[in-house]
């Protein structure tokens, strides 16, 4: 199988540590990947191409070199290295668009650090959408027990409520259903639509958004042949019995989606960007500057992200 591209992330965070740990865990079994990073920082072997990386993966961590402006110090992010962080992402996306890698797995970035360099995007998802020409990339979080998609993402709760629309729910759900078929191999995906208010509005007694915003979206999706159910009361839709009745929970705002997922299993949580012409996953955690360099970083989420990216690429290749 074609190797995956693994980006640098913030070099002062735990990305380097978990990259090395992931290679140790996967070197014999795969999936293979090539890191776009500083070879000396990772203790890896510089390679000139993805093909060369595939040939050495079993014996050395292959690295397509991306130079740092200044040496990275664990726990002390430096905006001077922001350009290298961005260049790593850009190169990985180019490789994926050209078909040289099967997909992109991104290590965590320090958004506040990149903002100091003029980075104009809220995060990875929006940046990847711009790089690939995708109008509406959608963020999914997945672990072995649950998949969730927040319709509104990196917004304050007040702004999320103000920007939630019927069209936003329809668009995110349509992209999600298509991705579940193409990338996850689910022939007839079942989407559970979360309510916004307590008890899903209690018939209007606790809010009208279920009637005025969510129900019209569900009607539109059903008219397109998409299997949707709900609006589900948000406080009961994540029980084991409820989760067995759907393939993904469409949530109305960020924390409504991420709190149950991370509570169930954060260590194996994976961030997946849907609606892109390439496969992209990432670990479901941040840079962890506070423990960088201590040797305590858990690579489980990155390993799951690599394995899931390989599965998605295989499904997508089979559907091509």
Verbal overview:
The protein has 320 residues and is an alpha/beta fold. The protein has helices spanning 15-26, 39-42, 50-56, 82-97, 111-115, 124-132, 157-163, 166-182, 209-223, 240-243, 254-265, 300-319; strands spanning 4-6, 33-37, 45-46, 62-65, 104-105, 138-143, 146-150, 190-194, 227-232, 248-251, 270-274, 280-283. Strands 3-4-2-1-5-12-11-6-7-10-8-9 form a twelve-stranded mixed beta sheet, with helices on both faces. β8 (190-194), α9 (209-223) and β9 form a beta-alpha-beta unit. α8 (166-182) crosses α9. It is globular, with a radius of gyration of 20 Å. The model has no long low-confidence stretch (mean pLDDT 94).
Q: Give the total of beta strands.
A: 12
Unreliable residue stretches: none
* Rg computed from alpha carbons, rounded to a whole number of angstroms: 20 Å
> Helix/strand-derived class?
alpha/beta
The end-to-end distance, rounded to whole angstroms, is: 15 Å
So what's the oligomer here? Answer: single chain
List the keywords.
320 residues; alpha/beta; Isopropylmalate Dehydrogenase; 12-stranded mixed beta sheet; 12 strands; 40% helix; globular
Would you kindly provide a brief summary of this structure?
With about 325 residues, the chain is of the alpha/beta class. It is built from twelve helices and twelve strands.
Layout of helices and strands:
Blueprint (H helix, E strand, L loop, with lengths): L3 E3 L8 H12 L6 E5 L1 H4 L2 E2 L3 H7 L5 E4 L16 H16 L6 E2 L5 H5 L8 H9 L5 E6 L2 E5 L6 H7 L2 H17 L7 E5 L14 H15 L3 E6 L7 H4 L4 E4 L2 H12 L4 E5 L5 E4 L16 H20 L1
Parallel strand pairs: 1-2, 1-5, 2-4, 3-4, 5-12, 7-10, 8-9, 8-10
Antiparallel strand pairs: 6-7, 6-11, 11-12
Helix pairs in contact: 8-9
């Amino acid at each position: 199988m074609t190797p995956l591209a693994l980006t640098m992330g913030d070099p002062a965070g735990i990305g380097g540590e978990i990259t090395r740990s992931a290679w140790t865990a996967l070197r014999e079994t795969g999936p293979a990947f090539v890191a776009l990073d500083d070879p000396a920082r990772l203790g890896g072997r510089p390679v000139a191409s993805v093909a060369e990386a595939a040939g050495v993966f079993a014996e050395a961590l292959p690295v397509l070199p991306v130079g740092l402006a200044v040496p990275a110090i664990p726990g002390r992010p430096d905006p001077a290295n922001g350009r290298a962080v961005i260049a790593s992402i850009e190169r990985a996306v180019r490789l994926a668009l050209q078909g040289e890698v099967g997909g992109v797995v991104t290590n965590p970035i320090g958004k506040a650090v990149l903002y100091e360099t003029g980075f104009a995007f809220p995060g990875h998802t929006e940046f990847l959408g711009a790089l690939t020409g995708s109008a509406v990339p959608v963020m999914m979080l997945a672990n072995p027990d649950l998949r969730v998609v927040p319709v509104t993402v990196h917004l304050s709760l007040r702004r999320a409520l103000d920007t939630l629309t019927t069209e936003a729910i329809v668009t995110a759900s349509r992209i999600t259903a298509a991705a579940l078929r193409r990338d996850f191999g689910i022939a007839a995906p079942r989407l559970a639509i979360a309510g916004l208010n307590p008890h899903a509005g209690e018939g209007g007694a606790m809010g009208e958004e279920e009637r005025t915003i969510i129900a019209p979206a569900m009607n539109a999706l059903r008219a397109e042949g998409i299997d949707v159910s709900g609006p589900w009361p948000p406080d009961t839709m994540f029980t084991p019995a409820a989760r067995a009745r759907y393939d993904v929970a469409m949530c109305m705002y960020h924390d409504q989606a991420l709190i149950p997922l991370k509570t169930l299993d954060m260590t194996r949580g994976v961030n997946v960007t849907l609606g892109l012409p390439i496969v992209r996953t990432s670990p479901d955690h941040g840079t962890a500057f506070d423990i960088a360099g201590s040797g305590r970083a858990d690579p489980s989420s990155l390993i799951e992200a690599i394995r899931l990216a390989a599965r998605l690429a295989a499904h997508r290749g089979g559907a091509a």
